Amino acid sequence: MKVLVVGNGGREHALAWKLLQSPKVQQVTCIPGNGGTASLAHCQNLPLSLDDFEGIGRFALVNGIALVVIGPEVPLAAGITDYLRHQHLTVFGPTRLGAQIEASKAWAKALMQEANIPTAQAAVFTEKDAAQAYVQAQGAPIVVKADGLAAGKGVTVAATVAEAQAAIAAIFEGQFGKAGERVVIEACLTGQEVSVLAITDGITIRPLLPAQDHKRIGDGDTGLNTGGMGAYAPAPIATPALMQRIQTEILEPTIAALQERKIDYCGVLYAGLMITPEGDPNVIEFNCRFGDPETQAILPLLETPLDELLLACAQKRLAAQPPIVWKAGAAACVVMAAEGYPGGFRKGDRITGVDAAEEQGAVVFHAGTQLKQQRLVTDGGRVLGVTATGETFDAAIAQAYAAVNATHFDGAYYRHDIGDRVRTAESASS
Ligand code: AMP
Ligand code: GLY
């Protein structure tokens, strides 16, 4: 069967790579793809824009695409699934209404509050003065969020009231355009974060292995927020008992609340969770898609063919699907970014050493790369997601960093502490 993957990040490279391991998948096309998907056997890129729904639909129909997998949130929120389904294509990814769970934090918060899903207490404002008065009354720390999609940059965890006021002023002055027409202000939660990506056909929902992301740019979780600088799976904090609670207290009630709103949600429901010091899971945010870089750490551990799972969701028969099978062991992904990221960065630097890294047994997922006249060059802020699996976290992390050392481009930046939290005390101190 032929599959179409929409998007151009490390997540989409990982999806294409995993899909091609399935005996049933003959060919994957990525729109627009990147240097990594251009280099994969049986994979091709098609340079269409993500908002060219008509062009994407036409390609899929003419080429007999059996399954379309949508990677990023922006086309989902713009209704790509609605459009393609209307063309009778089989699509994995929620409709425009379902994607609101990520595209409007106020909408998601209302859904959680109505369904009694544990989340930080919050209020929504459309006027600056009222928002600032609320912050003044609540005090700090407090969290200020632009309502809409802001590429991961719309959240300020404010340590002081002044910081929160400045964030509110910037949002209402148009920092995030229409995404900032509403502001969500919520209580600050403490604890450990975990990403639970679950696949659903809108009726049944099943979690993938839990993962942990590293959102800040600097070692020790310091500096600016990024799209994610590395990940590992399976996150030990999400024990089987906790995963059971997440299933019954969060995932299932969310699907029920979506059904109540007549939303037929097929795709990934990604719950970004804070596990409080008491051990209770709280939702920080929902995303309507696979996480990046979590997907790069999760998929190498998946044994069940990915196409089977995604098709079972798109065809509403997930309940009949056998349990998902995972490989034993652990996976770690270290993101190599361009100098200056998450601020301004340069593109076009030559990348070398990817083959050497892969010969050592790592998998190098490309995030921002381009193949230009057969030469691989940097083409984004996050450039590579260097990923390795191992019997233990120590082994997976050591192999991922050995592969990072084998890979080079000018100005490459990466965190040195991906997975430190799960390494054994002995190896962490050596
Ligand atoms: P989001 O874009 O909603 O994932 O938020 C980005 C990051 O901000 C999260 O990964 C958390 O680290 C932090 N954050 C968001 N909401 C809260 C909250 N209510 N309490 C503490 N930290 C938060
Ligand atoms: N890694 C965070 C995200 O995908 O939103």
Helix proportion of residues, in percent? 25-40%
The secondary-structure class comes to alpha+beta
The order of strands across the largest sheet is: 3-2-1-4-5
Strand content: 25-35%
Largest sheet: 5 strands, parallel
CATH topology of the largest domain: D-amino Acid Aminotransferase, Chain A, domain 1
Distance between the termini: 49 Å
Mean pLDDT: 95
Write the CATH architecture name of the largest domain: 2-Layer Sandwich
Bound molecules: adenosine monophosphate, glycine
Q: How many beta strands in the DSSP annotation?
A: 22
CATH-assigned homologous superfamily of the largest domain: ATP-grasp fold, B domain
Number of helices: 15
Domains, number = 3
Radius of gyration: 21 Å
* Residue runs with pLDDT of under 50 for 5 or more positions: none
The CATH class name of the largest domain reads Alpha Beta
Shape by Cα distribution: globular
Give structural notes.
- The chain has helices at 10-19, 35-39, 53-62, 73-77, 80-86, 96-103, 105-114, 128-138, 161-172, 240-260, 294-298, 306-314, 354-359, 393-406, 425-429, and strands at 2-7, 27-32, 43-45, 65-70, 91-92, 122-125, 142-146, 155-158, 183-187, 192-200, 205-207, 212-213, 216-218, 222-225, 230-233, 267-275, 281-287, 330-337, 363-366, 369-372, 375-378, 382-390.
- It has 430 residues and is α+β, with helices and mostly antiparallel strands.
- The protein has 3 domains: 2-96, 3-Layer(aba) Sandwich (Rossmann fold); 121-187, Dna Ligase, domain 1 (2-Layer Sandwich); 192-429, ATP-grasp fold, B domain (D-amino Acid Aminotransferase, Chain A, domain 1), CATH 3.30.470.20.
- The strands form 6 sheets. The protein has a 5-stranded parallel β-sheet with strand order 3-2-1-4-5, sandwiched between helices.
- Helix 6 crosses helix 7 (105-114) and helix 8 runs antiparallel to helix 9 (161-172).
- The chain is globular, with a radius of gyration of 21 Å.
- The termini are far apart.
- Adenosine monophosphate is lined by residues 120, 143, 152, 155, 157, 186, 188-189, 193, 215, 225, 272, 284-285.
